[in-house]
Amino acid sequence: MTHTGAVLEINRLIERARPPQRADRSAAGTLPTRAYRYCEAATSATGFGWWVFPPMDLQLLWDGTDIYWYYDGAEDWMLLAPAAQFPDFSNAFDAAAPDYLRGCAPPFLTVMPEPGLVQMWTGLMVRTAEDWSALVRAPANLPLPGGYSIYDGLVETDRWFGPLITNFRLTQMNRAVHFNSDFPIIQVQPIPRIAYAEQTLNATSFTPNMAAMNEQEWRAYEKTIAIPSEDPDRPFGAYAVAVRKRRLSGCPAHTASADARLMETS
Asked: What value does the mean pLDDT take over residues 134-160?
């Protein structure tokens, strides 16, 4: 499969869908001002990745047994059993796809076997550079509107190219749950495969008590916590300043590998 050299590639199939947007470090202004200014840990997590939106405004209603869906322009609520296509998408897909893929348009909504569970296609497809995967999760630090709970997924999109979907559980019955096409439903984060490999996770060390901590760890604690706390004139956000300076210095290892991939594809 030809790759452009980008770590994350996003393809939009449903043209009505809002384009993905870099996740906002302020969580669209919902983070407390003090957290946004001084808590680099919160803002870095919030801004890590891309926001992806539902391809249309819609509502879902779960009565405890069946799930119904509705969108502006529909004649009435429709039973979701077991799946539904995005309005008018099948014809558009068949017109654009090669002959051997006609009739293979991915469904928009699918009812899962578990009670209240729904799968939604975002109208996008993604792939990643070799040895990178896509973590699909709820938007970080952005309060959800309520009525549903997102399941996380980690997909090896360097070898699996298909619809970018999300699974979620409806958490209320007999009350419509609204999905707004201008409110992100998921956040997509590119993750190097080594980050969650067994050898990485198994390399974790555990210190059972303070007596087992070494001098280097105590000195690190002194530098990070004890010394700054004794300075009454210390500035706010020292950690944030240090991280931002480090970020500006770049990531030479990644830059070199990205340049190499670009040269291979040119």
From this structure: 96
